[in-house]
């Protein structure tokens, strides 16, 4: 048994998780690699199995296993397709059908992958679990574990980790958080994995590798097009502007692909599934200065006092906006100092104190003060 402990490392076969595993191995941890199979491309009805991406194809499984074999530590494949389908994919479909815009990667991290890792880690007597995320886990003087932004701001993944609870954070290692991606690529070269250093990264939803979520919804929901056919684009007064293809096929802030000519740029500003209407407006109509966030998970603190100042991010690539947070019965009211654009119900809101994640939740609705 290593004096540093035994760690179960999630290995997708990509550069980040592979280097994370090898770093921990070199540091003296007893490493066990595990690759999680979350889905089969064929079951999503895609055009070609060659378009499998990320951690869900045979090549990735083999790459992860090969790295483990070469460095003398065990590797397993964990089949979590049923759990993934029952929660992540069904949630994805239900959210779009409710007129919201989900973030399946966050749901997967929060409810599926980490829990599956911890369960298997306990079965294998591992002290820790580890991933290749670009974020940093620290412990506050109040003894709570919390997430901070990774050093490489272009790769920081703290936004997608807000849902991790204390029992998960206390057992998790993220060795890449203090490095830049360029440094990780150099490590891959130095460790004899030049092909990893050149490996392309996928930013698509793993179970929609053709990046056509509308086609995915049509294949998953029987008779979807018939259910939503004949809906209307309307302006903010309710005036009909023209027919659309169905409310689930649009997202807040969308400008391209509307297939309607109004003589000026138009943006999706609201979606109403009850009436199958999609509201169009000008870019300034996307401005909001308040929003309600529910399904809160606090990380750095076990709660907040009303008026706490925080930087709030409403999407992954968002720089964040200064805001005050207020407790309400069904979540947190966020009051922005200045207007923000494109607040989309269903997306995540993550609250920061400097580089530290205070907590996060799901955007329920937005509005004006």
Walkthrough of the structure:
By secondary structure, the chain is α/β, with parallel strands linked by helices. Among the domains are: about 5-130 and about 175-195, 3-Layer(aba) Sandwich (Rossmann fold); about 220-280, SH3 type barrels, CATH 2.30.30. Helix content is about 25%, strand content about 30%. It contains 9 helices and 17 strands. It has helices at about 15-25, 60-70, 80-95, 105-125, 165-170, 180-190, 195, 215-220, 225-230; strands at about 5-10, 30-35, 75-80, 130, 135-140, 145-150, 170-175, 230-235, 240-245, 265-270, 275-280, 285-300, 310-315, 320-330, 330-340, 350-355, 355-365. Strands 12-15-14-13-16-17 form a 6-stranded antiparallel beta barrel. Strands 3-2-1-4-7 form a 5-stranded parallel sheet, sandwiched between helices. It has a 4-stranded mixed sheet with strand order 9-8-11-10, with no helix packed on it. β10 and β11 form a beta hairpin. The radius of gyration is 22 Å and the shape is globular. The N and C termini lie far apart (about 60 Å).
């Amino acid at each position: 048994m290593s004096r540093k402990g035994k760690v179960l490392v999630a290995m997708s076969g990509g550069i980040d998780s592979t280097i994370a595993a090898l770093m921990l191995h070199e540091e003296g941890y007893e490493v066990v690699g595990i690759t999680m199979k979350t889905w089969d491309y064929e079951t999503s009805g895609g055009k070609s199995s060659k378009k499998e991406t990320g951690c869900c194809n045979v090549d990735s499984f083999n790459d992860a296993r090969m790295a483990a074999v070469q460095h003398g530590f065990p590797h397993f494949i964990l089949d979590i397709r049923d759990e993934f389908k029952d929660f992540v994919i069904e949630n994805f479909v239900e959210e779009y059908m409710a007129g919201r815009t989900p973030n399946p990667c966050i749901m997967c991290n929060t409810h599926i992958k980490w829990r599956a890792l911890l369960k298997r880690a306990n079965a294998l007597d591992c002290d820790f679990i580890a991933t290749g995320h670009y974020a940093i886990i620290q412990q506050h003087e109040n003894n709570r574990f919390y997430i901070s932004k990774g050093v490489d701001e272009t790769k920081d993944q703290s936004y997608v980790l807000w849902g991790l609870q204390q029992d998960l954070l206390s057992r998790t290692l993220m060795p890449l958080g203090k490095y830049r991606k360029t440094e990780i690529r150099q490590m891959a070269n130095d460790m004899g994995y030049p092909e990893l250093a050149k490996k392309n990264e996928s930013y698509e939803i793993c179970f929609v590798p053709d990046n056509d979520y509308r086609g995915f919804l049509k294949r998953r929901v029987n008779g979807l097009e018939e259910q939503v056919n004949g809906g209307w684009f309307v302006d903010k007064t309710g005036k009909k502007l023209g027919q659309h293809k169905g409310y689930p096929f649009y997202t807040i802030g969308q400008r391209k692909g509307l297939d309607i000519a109004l003589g000026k740029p138009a943006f999706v500003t609201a979606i109403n599934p009850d009436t199958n209407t999609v509201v169009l407006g000008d870019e300034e109509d996307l401005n909001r200065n308040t929003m309600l966030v529910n399904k809160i998970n606090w990380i750095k603190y076990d709660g907040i006092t009303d008026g706490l100042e925080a930087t709030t991010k409403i999407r992954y690539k968002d720089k964040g906006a200064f805001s005050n947070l207020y407790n309400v019965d069904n979540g947190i009211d966020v009051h922005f100092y200045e207007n923000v654009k494109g607040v989309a119900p269903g997306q995540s809101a993550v609250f920061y104190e400097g580089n530290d994640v205070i907590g996060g939740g799901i955007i329920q609705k937005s509005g004006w003060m």
